[in-house]
Fold this protein.
Amino acid sequence: MSIMKSKTILIVFLVFCFVPQISYGEVVDRIIAIVNNDVITSIELNKVIVPYIKKINSLGYSGEKKEQALLKIKKDMLNRLIDRKLTDQEIARLSLKISDEELNNAIERLKKSKFMSQEDIEKILKKEGISFKDYRERIRKNLLRPKLVNFSVKSRVVITDKDIEKYYNNHKEEFAGINEYHVFNIFFAVPPYASDALKAEKLNKINQIIKMLENGEDFKILAQNFSESKNAFEGGNLGILRLETLDINVRKAISQLNKGEYTGAIMTDQGYQIFYLENIHKIKGKSLEQVSEEISKKLYNEILEEKFDSWLDLLRKKSYIKIML
């Protein structure tokens, strides 16, 4: 038997030997996982799943579906707790520390980012029943994990110019020039549960508008006089839009227009609409040189996450982990 397993069995034995007698009806804390020389208890797990249980309860699931969702949450969160134990053990093994100066600087940065004073933080902590001393130690622990990543993983991440160029060539649509469209509309509202008679009435109105447009009447004046939208007084001005933000049917219709043209009647979620294209604004794309740093950061973060996951998987394989959920 390995030394690690022997130590683990001893820990479990001692835990069970020294558990106090519990009267009937009390909540029993029990070991649900062993991670090398540490254990995870049911109380630890229950603390972290409380917000998720509330969320599941609010969804109104049936009994079986609710049980399945709860079980999945328990398994997922238990795996997170195991990963945390493993990283904490590595931090201890490597003797990684956060100095008081690093901790103070981190808290000051947090205050500035949240526009909070020391008094503000202490008031919030008091409401939560947490002392400032305990809060500092929580921050210290949170800072230790990035330090572990720096020590164990970051040195293995290298981004070359070829990597950056390859990403740029494979994602040219991200950096290519795009068009923005200055669009106006005429709108007739159709409620979700409108009767067929009301729908027919609104369609008839918008078809009459189309006939007026075909006779050369001004789109913006028609919008001011007939449109039911809030922007009618502005001639139906919707502003400058990017097509990807629009409903697919509207996007297709506008993309086929030339400057000064209008669509036919389009049924949208809100009702019938006609769209008029005032102008197309072309935005110049970005060169490889302009986006090189941006791509480098993106690739770095992606590879860092991938390598950290691989490092954690290897750590799991080297560790003694027993789950008793």
